[in-house]
Amino acid sequence: MVISVFGCGWFGLHFAKSLIDHGHLVKGSTTTPEKIELLRSHGVQPFLINFSAAFQNTFDGYFFKCDILVIAIPPKVRSTTGDDYLITVKKLIKQVKSNMVGKVLFISSTSVLGDQNGHIDEHTLAMPDSASGKVLQQCEQYFSRISAHSRSA
Known about the structure:
This protein is an alpha/beta fold. About 35% of the residues lie in helices and about 15% in strands. The two termini are about 25 Å apart.
């Protein structure tokens, strides 16, 4: 199985290494040229991809030729408004659609739930009370829409 991990930061790289240990071919993205060799040294096929407005990508889409796409990037709203994150997610969705990625796993956060206590499951309503939670909730909704669309098609 070919799995692409978009965002090989602290979570994504550890997840990628675990997938490799289980026999999967893993492609991993980074926005940092210096990290390419680190990914390669762990058996990850590295890709330099940055969807921010200031960066021009030259990749050919091969990264998105996969059975599963894992999205493991944080919104970083402490240092930004989250607008770049939303732009990145919209560009990811475009790639998912144009490359017909079969499955997408979006790594979100419990921050979409806000300060709720008690039993939490997939039916619990999101009530984010932080900027990052609100941005992540928006992204979850974007992915839910494409998921619902693909099931009805």
